[in-house]
Amino acid sequence: MTGMKSPAVVRRLLASNVLAHAQRTPPRTIDKTMTIAVAALDERILSTPISASIGILLNAVAQQPVVLVDGDGINQPLRGPIGAGTDGDLIGLAEANVEKLNRATIETFADTTGTVALLSNNFHTRVKIQPEILDTAVSRVAHRWPTVVIDLPFTCLHDTISAGTALAKHVILVTDKHHTEHGWLYRKGHQLTQAANEGRVTVVRLGGGVSDNQPKDTFSMPSLDLSTTSRDRIHLPTDSASLTMYHRLLARLYP
Question: Which domain holds residue 171?
Answer without folding.
Answer: 30-191+198-253
